[in-house]
Design brief:
Layout (H helix, E strand, L loop, with lengths): L1 H9 L3 E9 L3 E8 L2 H9 L1 H11 L26 H26 L5 H33 L12
Helix pairs in contact: 4-5
Length: 158
């Protein structure tokens, strides 16, 4: 983002930039040009194309343009992910964690009734998933989950 902003500073018509950083690793950059034609020239120029191509190697972009004194943009979020993708990612985090936790609890508490073992397992499983496992798994899969069929970020609910 810093390199894009620095490159835009050099171009005529650039007025300002706004960085928006959402929780969970979503980052947005709003560039403000004095005229739409200058924005179009910038976005079609070699510098921007090279930087956007470089960013494509590690991110998924969604270009939106607006003009005027009041502008609006649709920001993608995890709620736009297809439900089957969310279910698959959650399952991939739950299954190994469940197997490990239930095995450890059964080994550590062999003489405790099964119902109490399951209560202990559920507390450990829920805690591990909430604070350790699912944030990592969702972080690794976020851009895949939010992509539509064309590889663009989804803005509408899945």
């Amino acid at each position: 983002m810093d390199r894009v902003i620095a490159a835009a500073h050099v171009d005529g018509g650039f007025m300002s930039a706004v960085r928006l950083d959402q929780a969970g690793g979503l980052h947005h950059l709003v560039l403000h040009f004095d005229e739409r034609r200058r924005l179009e020239r910038w976005s079609e120029g070699a510098t921007y194309i090279a930087l956007a191509s470089e960013a494509d190697a590690f991110s998924v972009g969604l270009d939106q343009n607006d003009s005027g004194s009041v502008m609006g943009f649709d920001l993608p979020s995890e709620v736009a992910a297809k439900k089957w993708k969310t279910a698959l990612v959650t399952w991939l985090g739950v299954v190994p964690t469940l197997l490990i936790v239930s095995s450890v609890v059964a080994w550590a508490l062999p003489d405790v009734p099964r119902v109490l073992q399951q209560i202990v397992s559920s507390v450990l499983l829920t805690s591990a998933l909430t604070w350790l496992i699912l944030p990592k798994v969702r972080g690794w899969s976020r851009f895949w989950m939010m992509q539509n069929e064309q590889g663009d970020l989804r803005k509408e609910p899945g």
